């Protein structure tokens, strides 16, 4: 991996090593992908102020996330189907995060179950919840996260209905997968991936096993989600979730100031300013465009996390400069996982950490607390 120098290198390796349907599932976005593109493009528009002759010999990325020490202001975002990018992918990603001293968030739509991960790692991880119509099942799922000692619940609030990802339909991303000659050839030319996935603990959604008829529904993933997820979910349900989950609660997927104000009244400890990585409402603003307004309005009441479009350490510093306390990364580490399993995720985190340290040095700051709009050129 010594010639891997940036996240784009990991993306290229992921593309070569993993079947097209799974790479595209990770890489692509909804409809025209305008919002997907805007996330990264708007970050790149933000210019730094170069500052010189400041003693930057003691640069340090350490910070706190929801009161807990963290080695850097990064969190691995919930990403569905990681176990299809690499056998036991959720376990590998969680181990890499814990070794790097940052939180890992397990998606409801994981291949490994909550219990699989808990048995394989030493420290607590975060659990992301999607609310389905079967509330008894959701209550049991939250109770499983409590039993596994998950240290935060991330309630995703921007996927009551799923934004269509054209490429997933073209690729036959169904449960179980739709086969074609091209797909068989694609799989046959990726033997390392196939044997890794076959050695993995599971081949379908581990958290849902035994509860929902995943394998019997031969439908597009999106049709299946639309049939299972609860479109009636609303603000009142947060009280219901809080009556089951006693720990830290994070609402993920807020883009609107009015929603952020309501969120601040729910007692949630944090929100993630996010458009789901451009996979949901196409035509929504980029996450970075709305971040400053949300920070100004509710930043003193709750912790503001950010995600969407982060591909470099420079992007992390940009989001922190505009008021985020920490950043979630999705694709940046999913590419690492597809490229090289746990080592690839570790590499992705390391690349971002080194880029952050260099950016801080060239902007003349030593600590995360010092990063504010002073590091930006107006
Ligand atoms: C392949 C993939 C699967 C995702 N699955 C979930 C999920 O299960 N739950 C969730 O809350 N967000 C999910 N997300 C959204 C991420 O948590 C995050 O918001 C997004 O990836 C951030 O954008 P970025 O990929 O540009 O970093 C997914 C994102 C990707 C790329
Ligand atoms: C498996 C579908 C839900 C996962 C998800 O949130 C995403 O693909 O963006």
UniProtKB/TrEMBL annotation:
Put simply, this protein is called Alpha-hydroxy-acid oxidizing protein
Q: Which organism is it from?
A: Bradyrhizobium archetypum
Gene3D superfamilies, A to Z: Aldolase class I (3.20.20.70)
Instruction: Keywords in alphabetical order, please.
Output: Flavoprotein, FMN, Oxidoreductase
Q: So what family is this one in?
A: Belongs to the FMN-dependent alpha-hydroxy acid dehydrogenase family.
Biological process terms in GO annotation: aerobic respiration
- Residues bound to FMN are 78-80, 107, 128, 130, 156, 252, 274, 307-311, 330-331
Q: Which domain of life is it from?
A: Bacteria
- What transmembrane ranges does the database entry give? none
Give one GO molecular function term: FMN binding
Q: A Gene Ontology CC term for this entry?
A: plasma membrane
């Amino acid at each position: 991996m010594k010639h891997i120098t940036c996240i784009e290198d990991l993306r290229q390796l992921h593309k070569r090593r993993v079947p097209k349907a799974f790479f595209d599932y990770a890489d692509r976005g909804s409809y025209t992908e305008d919002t997907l593109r805007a996330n990264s493009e708007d970050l790149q528009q933000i210019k730094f102020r170069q500052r010189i002759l400041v003693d930057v010999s003691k640069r340090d990325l350490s910070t706190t996330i929801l009161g807990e020490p963290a080695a850097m202001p990064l969190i691995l975002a919930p990403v569905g189907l990681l176990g299809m990018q690499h056998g036991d992918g959720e376990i590998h990603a969680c181990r890499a995060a814990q070794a790097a001293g940052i939180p890992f968030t397990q998606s409801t739509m994981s291949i490994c179950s909550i219990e699989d991960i808990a048995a394989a790692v030493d420290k607590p991880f975060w659990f992301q919840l999607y609310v389905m119509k079967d509330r008894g099942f959701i209550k049991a799922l939250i109770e499983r996260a409590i039993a596994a000692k998950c240290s935060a619940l991330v309630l995703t609030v921007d996927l009551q209905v799923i934004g269509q990802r054209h490429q997933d339909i073209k690729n036959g991303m169904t449960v179980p997968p739709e086969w074609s000659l091209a797909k068989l050839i694609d799989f046959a030319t990726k033997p390392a991936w196939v044997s890794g996935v076959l050695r993995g603990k599971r081949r379908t959604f581990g958290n849902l096993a035994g509860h929902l008829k995943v394998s019997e529904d031969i439908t597009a993933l999106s049709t299946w989600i639309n049939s299972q997820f609860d479109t009636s979910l609303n603000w009142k349900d947060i009280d219901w979730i809080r009556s089951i989950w006693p720990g830290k609660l994070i609402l993920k997927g807020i883009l609107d100031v009015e929603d952020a104000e309501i969120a601040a009244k729910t007692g949630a400890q944090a929100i993630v300013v996010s458009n789901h990585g451009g996979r949901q409402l196409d035509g929504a603003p980029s996450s970075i465009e709305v971040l400053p307004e949300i920070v100004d309005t509710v930043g003193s009441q709750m912790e503001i996390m950010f995600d969407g479009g982060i591909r470099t350490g420079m992007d992390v510093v940009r989001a922190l400069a505009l008021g985020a306390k920490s950043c979630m990364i999705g694709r940046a580490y999913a590419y690492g996982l597809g490229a090289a399993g746990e080592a690839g995720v570790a590499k992705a985190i390391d690349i971002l950490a080194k880029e952050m340290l260099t950016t801080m040095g060239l902007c003349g700051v030593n600590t995360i607390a010092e990063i504010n709009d002073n590091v930006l050129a107006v």
